[in-house]
Amino acid sequence: MLTIPSLQGSVSPEEWQLRCDLAACYRLVALYGWSDLVFTHISAKLPESVSGPGEHHFLINPYGLMFDEITASSLIKVDMLCNKLHDSPFLVNPAGFVIHSAVHEARPEAGCVLHTHTRAGVAVSAQKGGVLPISQQSTFVLGSLAYHEYEGVAFRDEEKPRLQADLGDANFLMLRNHGLLTVGKTIADAFLSMYTFENTCRIQIDAQAGGELTQVNPQIVSGVAQAMRVQTGGLGGAFAWPALLRKVQRDLPGYDS
């Protein structure tokens, strides 16, 4: 069993809260079955009040830990190049941070970037038609969805400009033949967006195993897209987050240590 000294007394209250929320998010990803062993990442941006004016610092997972092992104190603070900014016995994965750094660089308002390699997500990402308008969940995704073509394992900085251009101002990104990515102003928003994105893909795969599909009226899809553009609360992550924290405390306690 891992023994990790607590950082609670050595970081600001704002950083500690962000660490607790991000650790909870990692464990929720594990609880919902979206993790891929120790691979993929969730990054959270520290506010300038913590990192300093003009500075861009992030929290990311210690490479090699399962998502259900991650705690607030084990998370590693890095800069835009994924250099460690404090002592930690754990490794970081600069190659895995390429996608995240590209998104954070292009979208300064992004407080959290969540990336998965789930079975359903990769399956839909491999389909030529991508996300189909066949469920209520899909209408929320289609209101802010972008696609990025597969260029191999994403560890080359030269891919960043193309990924940034493809993402634009979308909050859902389907990485072709690769997986799913969500962008949120908060950790709660990014998690709830991924919950919706993942369920959209699972529903689509299930529906395609049955009979002829019925698609949602394009006017309805367009209306949902317009509503999402004008509302300020995203998918309402703040409303679900307290309940999700209670769930992770019941099922995988210890994240806030």
What does this 3D model show about the protein?
- The protein contains nine helices and seven strands, in the order H-E-H-E-E-H-E-H-H-E-H-E-E-H-H-H.
- It is of the alpha+beta class and 257 residues long.
- Strands 3-2-1-4-7-6-5 form a seven-stranded mixed beta sheet, with helices on both faces.
- Helix 7 packs across helix 9.
- The model has no long low-confidence stretch (mean pLDDT 92).
Distance between the termini: 14 Å
- Helix/strand-derived category reads alpha+beta
Assembly type of the chains comes to single chain
Helical coverage, percent range: 40-55%
Main sheet characteristics: 7 strands, mixed
Instruction: List the helices and strands in order.
Output: HEHEEHEHHEHEEHHH
Widest sheet: strand order?
3-2-1-4-7-6-5
Q: How much of the polypeptide forms β-strand, as a percent range?
A: 5-15%
* Alpha plus pi helix count: 9
Number of strands: 7
Radius of gyration: 18 Å
The whole-number mean of residue pLDDT values reads 92
Query: What is the approximate shape?
Result: globular
Low-confidence stretches: none
